[in-house]
User: Which sequence fits this backbone?
């Protein structure tokens, strides 16, 4: 049995860890609230951009297919995979589930004869993919906790350029959609080419996970200049806002996952402290019993 001093040292160590996990939980909770406010402010704007893009595409009709970002390549050989992860860990399976989903999708594409070009945001995703031996076509780190729109624009520019140049024939984005501090859904979204299903609004809403038409067209709209020119300007914005929305929702999901993980760690530390306290009491009782037996033995020896 461990000595009373050893158990005390263990209790002190666990208490120090518990203080850290509680502090991290409080910090994550504060950052989560700010991230939730950003999501609440962003979602109406993102939905409006999507609605305007769909309306312009419907108005442009067949002319919309002439836009490079709306036109599917004649043949597909290379698919870009954009994984949105965090810069830090200690958030349960938040990052690992995105990596697993990306690797699983890459394996499915490989079975059909398609190659994968990897793009990743967040140090966890970049390091994990590099550790697995995957060469990254684009890596973006340092802003996962508080992404800016400029970060999304940088990612979008690289992906759009690769698609227009023919280096990739499709782009799939995988990220954690924020639902609540306890729930983040792994969401897959086709960024390029923009399909007719996406433009019609009949696709899964990345924010809620619910299916159905979003922002149906109401009334008639007159365009000046013509719808094709407006669509040519709106489509890149649609790609950028889609990536930015994924970054913001992923940031909120990370803080929610970290808050939950740190709360669980604090509770586990409390249970360990209770177990060690019982062990220390047993050790103290054993030492007292041993001392009494030695006193009794000494008294009997003198009598």
Assistant:
């Amino acid at each position: 049995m461990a000595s009373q001093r050893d158990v005390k040292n263990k209790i002190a160590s666990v208490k120090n860890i518990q203080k850290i996990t509680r502090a991290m939980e409080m910090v994550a909770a504060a950052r989560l609230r700010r991230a939730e406010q950003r999501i609440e402010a962003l979602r109406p704007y993102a939905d409006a951009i999507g609605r305007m893009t769909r309306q312009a595409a419907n108005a442009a009709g067949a002319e919309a297919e002439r836009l490079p970002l709306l036109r599917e390549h004649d043949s597909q050989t290379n698919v870009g995979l954009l994984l949105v992860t965090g810069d830090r860990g200690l958030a349960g399976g938040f990052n690992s589930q995105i990596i697993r989903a990306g690797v699983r999708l890459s394996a499915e594409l490989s079975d059909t004869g398609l190659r994968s070009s990897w793009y990743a945001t967040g140090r966890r995703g970049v390091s994990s993919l590099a550790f697995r031996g995957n060469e990254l076509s684009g890596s973006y780190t340092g802003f996962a906790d508080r992404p800016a729109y400029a970060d999304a624009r940088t990612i979008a520019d690289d992906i759009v350029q690769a698609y227009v140049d023919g280096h990739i024939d499709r782009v799939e984005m995988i990220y954690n959609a924020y639902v609540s501090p306890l729930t983040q859904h792994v969401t897959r979204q086709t960024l390029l080419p923009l399909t007719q299903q996406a433009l019609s609004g009949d696709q899964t809403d990345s924010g809620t996970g619910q299916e159905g038409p979003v922002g149906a067209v109401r009334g008639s709209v007159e365009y000046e200049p013509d719808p094709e020119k407006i669509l040519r300007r709106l489509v890149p914005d649609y790609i950028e806002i889609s990536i930015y929305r994924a970054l913001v929702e992923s940031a909120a999901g990370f803080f929610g996952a970290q808050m939950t993980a740190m709360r669980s760690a604090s509770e586990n530390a409390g249970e360990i402290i209770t177990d060690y306290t019982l062990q220390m009491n047993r050790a103290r009782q054993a030492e007292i019993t041993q001392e009494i037996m030695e006193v009794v033995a000494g008294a009997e020896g003198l009598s």
Q: What stands out?
A: DSSP finds six helices and seven strands in the chain. Residues 31-257 form a domain with the Pyruvate Kinase; Chain: A, domain 1 fold (CATH 3.40.1380.10).
